[in-house]
Amino acid sequence: AGGELFMQLEREGIFLEDTACFYLSEITLALGHLHSHGIIYRDLKPENIMLNSQGHIKLTDFGLCKESIHDGAVTHTFCGTIEYMAPEILVRSGHNRAVDWWSLGALMYDMLTGSPPFTAENRKKTIDKILKGKLVLPPYLTPDARDLLKKVPPQPH
């Protein structure tokens, strides 16, 4: 263990559901902790998640975080990595900590399928796919995984 989650995902292609569940649980706790302090992370992606020697996650690269965002507050900065960016960031309608949960849904999809849910040959087409929000679930996903992916963003808000 150790290193970037990205490299682990590259090596394995996809994660087994138990492995994905472990990482996603720890990421959920990390995001919840940040949110409880009024911080939106805004750049959740495999490259920004490190694994320590015991295989536990650590979020890195806090450069795009926004502080002092509590209930009801929004921010309008266009930032993040397109494939993991929530629709409200893309359309600049104002966003809050919900964007981190959207990114978590995209990351979950990536872990279970080997790529983010909305990708295309260029940025504009990727953005269009995100805004349309038609999620295609591969048939090999278990009913539990399919159900969870349907409930968690990346469905547009």
Automatic annotation (TrEMBL):
Keywords: ATP-binding, Kinase, Nucleotide-binding, Serine/threonine-protein kinase, Transferase. Transmembrane segments: none annotated. Gene3D superfamilies: Transferase(Phosphotransferase) domain 1 (1.10.510.10). InterPro entries: Kinase-like_dom_sf, Prot_kinase_dom, Ser/Thr_kinase_AS. Residues 1-157 form the Protein kinase domain. One of its GO terms (molecular function) is ATP binding. This is KS6B2 kinase.
